[in-house]
Task: inverse folding
C-alpha cells in the first residue's frame, strides 16, 4: 500500500514510459474486474495487441487496446479514445481473429475492449474501460 501511495505521489511517468505504465495500470484494473491476463504486447508484422485476457466467464477471449495520454489541464485535448481510427479498428479486428486462430481459440467468443487513461501531472490517473468497443461494421 505504501509503495502504491509513493508511486501516485510522484505523478505521471516520463513521456517515453507513459504507454507501458498505462498498460500495467490497465492490466491491474482488468484483473480487479475478474479478467485473467493471458498475454501482453502480442506482435504480428502488421500490428500489436496490448493485452489479451480471459473474461470472468472463462470462455470469452478479450483483446484490449490501451490508450494513455498525459493531461496538463491547460488546453482541452481529445480523449485517448479518439486515437482509435477506422484503420486502427480494422487492424485490431484482423489481429484478434489472427491471434485467436493461431492460439487455437477458434469458436470461442471474442471481444475487443478499449481502456483509455488520462494521466495528469499530479493526482491519480483517470481510467475508462469500454467493453466490446470494437466490432465489425462499427
Result:
Amino acid at each position: 500500500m505504501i509503495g502504491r501511495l509513493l508511486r501516485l505521489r510522484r505523478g505521471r511517468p516520463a513521456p517515453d514510459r507513459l504507454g507501458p505504465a498505462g498498460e500495467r495500470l490497465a492490466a491491474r484494473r482488468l484483473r480487479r474486474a475478474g479478467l485473467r491476463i493471458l498475454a501482453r504486447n502480442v506482435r504480428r508484422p502488421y500490428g500489436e495487441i496490448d493485452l489479451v485476457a480471459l473474461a470472468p466467464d472463462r470462455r470469452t477471449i478479450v483483446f484490449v487496446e490501451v490508450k494513455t495520454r498525459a493531461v496538463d489541464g491547460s488546453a482541452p485535448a481529445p480523449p485517448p479514445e479518439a486515437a482509435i481510427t477506422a484503420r486502427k479498428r480494422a487492424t485490431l479486428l484482423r489481429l484478434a481473429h489472427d491471434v485467436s486462430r493461431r492460439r487455437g481459440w477458434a469458436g470461442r467468443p471474442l471481444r475487443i475492449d478499449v481502456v483509455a487513461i488520462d494521466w495528469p501531472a499530479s493526482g491519480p490517473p483517470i481510467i475508462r474501460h469500454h467493453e466490446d468497443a470494437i466490432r465489425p461494421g462499427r
